[in-house]
Amino acid sequence: MDQRLLSFFVTLAEELHFVRAAERLGVTQPALSQQIAKLEETLAVKLFERTKRRVALTDAGRNFQDDALAILRQLDLAVAGARRAAEGQIGRLTIGFVEACPFNILPVLVSRLSRELPEVSLILQEMVTKEQIEALRSGRIDVGLLRPMFSEPGLGTLPLFRESYMVALPAGHRLTQAAAVPLTALREERFIMTPPGKRRYVEGRFRAAFRRAGFEPQVAQEVHQIHTMIGLVAGGIGVALVPQSVSRLNLENVVYRPLKGLDSTVSELVAAWPLDRETPVLRRFVAIARSIAAGEA
After folding, report:
1. How far is Cα 215 from Cα 183, in angstroms, rounded to an integer?
2. Strand, helix or coil at 198?
3. Can you give the pTM of this predicted structure?
């Protein structure tokens, strides 16, 4: 059914006057009459009763008016939806993120996305960097928030966040008296760490520093979650090296101290996405992420 014919019919049904309806539509009265006749011929139904003095809807016309209005409204919604999708205002975005993200960039990013793109459905999946790279290749996630420890020419990247590392100590530990802790002071300590496959980035950050300090860390426990790591520190099981933002976990019996002489050993976070699968929603995400990385509210 031609949308133009429906619009002509609905306008005439509202005005019940050919001249006024034609003026609203911006066409001549004969042109309107021809289109209404064409519609009635197509439907094989008489929609209007016409006399020299009046125009009135038939029973069939009144029934058709309700359906025609519903069709036109649905078409308007479909057009508006298509335009919003093309502008990245509606859709779905699956975001992978490493475990430390909820302590720094993720809350700000999700808040901005929810505020500026309320009709975009966000799906968040926690993954280590290696898993995110595989998920980006396969299309299981649209964008990743991960560590810059990969070389993928097919990915676009955006530096998001960098911060220093700190040492988490049990309250009452001798080193809590220091304003900053040199790595050499941790020689005899036992460390709480994530398993080898999950701590590759941290090991890479500290490998040279441990070498200069002349020791390799003794591992007391291996756990998967930062919350568990800090909980074990509170229990006096050991110490832990964590990004500065983790210190926002104000857990009782844990004290955080900066690491002395390790200003160049920082934790970095980047966004990455497939260049060959840039959707309007993804482009909006990148624009928002870029403004956050630049320090814009």
Report:
1. 10
2. coil
3. 0.71
